[in-house]
From TrEMBL:
This is RNA-binding S4 domain-containing protein. The keyword rRNA processing does not apply. Belongs to the universal ribosomal protein uS4 family. Keywords: Ribonucleoprotein, Ribosomal protein, RNA-binding, rRNA-binding. It comes from the Eukaryota. Residues 1-65 form the RNA-binding S4 domain. SMART domains: S4 (SM00363).
Length: 101
């Protein structure tokens, strides 16, 4: 649900670092407001717009919608962790990062 990842998934940037640069350079609006934080957590019903040219992608995740001619993307819902297809023990991740102080 990070803004830079959503821009990449929508096809608004060809790479995640490219998406981070778009956000850092203040080219992205979320709900009509400039957002310059790539780690911004998008919520359902957020409307993401860009002033730059977009590339269309053939297959979009179900939680995102792209309107290419309006330079706009929409977050439909929070992504389900089962959809990602990774088996991760979240408690081990929390335990690891809690020791990093």
């Amino acid at each position: 649900m990070r803004l830079d990842n959503i821009l990449f998934r929508l096809g608004m940037a060809s790479t995640i670092p490219g998406a981070r640069q778009l956000v850092n350079h203040r080219h992205i609006l979320v709900n009509g407001r400039i957002v310059d934080i790539p780690s911004y957590r998008c919520k359902p019903r957020d409307i993401i717009t860009a002033g730059n040219e977009q590339k269309s992608r053939a297959e979009l995740p179900k939680h995102l919608t792209l309107h290419p001619f309006q330079f706009k993307g929409l977050v439909n819902q929070i992504i389900d962790s089962n959809w990602v297809g990774l088996k991760i023990n979240e408690l081990l991740v929390v335990e690891y990062y809690s020791r990093q102080t």
